[in-house]
Amino acid sequence: MKVTRKSQFTGVEHTMDLPTVTEERLAQCWRFSLDGKGKHIQQVFPELSADEREFLMTGVTAEEWDVAFPEEDEE
Predict the structure, then answer these.
(1) pTM higher than 0.90 for the full model?
(2) 3-state SS track over 54-70
(3) Average confidence score pLDDT of the chain
(4) Does any domain span residue 73?
(5) CA 14 to CA 69: how far, in whole Å?
(6) Does 15 have pLDDT greater than 70?
């Protein structure tokens, strides 16, 4: 399924192709359920990476995350 989300960091819309994501599975997540009940996104989509799950929830891409929170050089 192609999923389009607006980044909560930048307001830019991004689309990601996530073949295992369906409306039915999204509805199982507490964040997307109509009654506010449900499972954590990690439980519903264990096959997705943390970056892909973050995108589903907030629209933030891995690249935007890296710009917002750069890793500090370890010395």
Answers:
(1) no
(2) HHHHHCCCHHHHHHHCC
(3) 91
(4) no
(5) 19
(6) yes
